[in-house]
Design brief:
Shape: globular
Number of domains: 2
Radius of gyration: 19 Å
Number of helices: 8
Strand content: 15-25%
CATH topology of the largest domain: Rossmann fold
Bound molecules: flavin mononucleotide, iron/sulfur cluster
CATH architecture of the largest domain: 3-Layer(aba) Sandwich
Oligomer: single chain
Number of strands: 11
CATH superfamily of the largest domain: Flavodoxin domain
């Protein structure tokens, strides 16, 4: 039986939803287990260049957002090479923007398993969509957070009772389905891969925050209007710029954003798996 003496909150987050849910689950588990707490944020490329190792006395709450119905593909090299589970217990957590988490949680659970972590619980929680301020607005809300605490507490109960077989069953399809493709009004795929945010020079005060927080390290700190590398549309720079100076003007991107806002206006469900 695993004796757990540390609970980790480990996450990638662009706009803060995943951080909020992962830390809520981890703190609830930690309170119940009365053990040490640690946080590890791998949102920056410099952090993803390093390996992280866990121990069989660790419980790791591990989260990513859902991108295109899956774990963000740019994270796969990191997730498959630099995470050493060493028999730790895990709780995969995803957040999604009120459309669907599709196979994101199952893919993350499978990655955990291959990395030597045993998933004993999981959660998929709604958060405001990265592309929007109306889709999933106000999420996670108090109900989502209560569900996250319930997940943390129930996972801790499993640890205390020794019921730590895994991997836990979660929603999704295995084999994992292809990435979700946005489509235009004629059902042609919309390709937003090369789309990058613009900067409004009248609003930008050159504080440099966007360059420091870009999850791809792609914004030039000497000239924040310049996105020199790839942009994954995480929207960290757009939503966290204190002056609201970053925006997208690409037609395909805006069409996709508005279509999502129209079609998925209903309340999406957060779900936990034990
Ligand atoms: C490129 C991209 C693709 C996304 N794809 C989906 C999706 O397939 N389904 C969905 O419901 N939300 C999707 N989202 C929304 C995010 O999953 C959601 O807003 C998430 O909570 C963001 O987490 P963060 O705040 O930790 O960055 C996508 C966001 C981005 C940036
Ligand atoms: S965070 Fe906003 S205000 Fe600050 S440098 Fe970037 S675009 Fe300009
Ligand atoms: S430039 Fe792209 S990848 Fe970088 S923070 Fe902005 S949206 Fe995210």
């Amino acid at each position: 039986m695993n004796k757990i003496n540390k609970v980790w909150a480990v996450y990638f987050t662009g706009t803060g939803n995943t951080k909020k849910m992962v830390t809520t689950v981890a703190k609830a588990a930690c309170d119940k287990l009365g053990c040490e707490y640690a946080e590890y944020d791998f949102s920056l490329p410099t952090v993803r260049a390093q390996e992280i190792s866990f121990a069989d006395t660790d419980l790791v709450v591990f989260g990513t957002p859902v991108y295109a119905g899956r774990v963000p593909n740019v994270l796969l090299p990191y997730l498959t090479k630099n995470i050493k589970g060493n028999g730790a217990l895990a709780v995969p957590v995803v957040t999604y923007g009120n459309r669907n988490f599709d196979d994101g949680l199952m893919e993350l659970r499978n990655i955990m398993t291959v990395n030597g972590l045993t998933a004993i619980g999981g959660g998929a929680f709604v958060g405001e969509h990265s592309f929007s301020t109306t889709l999933g607005a106000g999420r996670p809300d108090p109900d989502d957070l209560a569900m996250a605490r319930e997940l943390g507490e129930k996972v801790a109960e499993k640890v205390l009772s020794g019921a730590v077989e895994g991997p836990v069953a979660v929603e999704g399809e295995d084999p994992i389905r292809p990435y979700y493709t946005p489509r235009d009004r004629n059902a042609n795929p919309i390709n937003i891969l090369k789309v990058k945010p613009k900067t409004d020079p009248d609003k930008c005060i050159n504080c440099g925050l966007c360059a420091r927080i870009c999850t791809m390290g792609s914004i030039d700190p000497q000239d924040v209007t310049s996105v020199t590398g790839i942009c994954i549309k995480c929207c960290a720079c757009v939503k966290r710029c204190p002056k609201g100076a970053k925006y997208y003007d690409d037609e395909g991107y805006l069409y996709h954003q508005h279509e999502l806002e129209d079609v998925y206006a209903r309340r999406g469900e957060s779900k936990i798996f034990l």
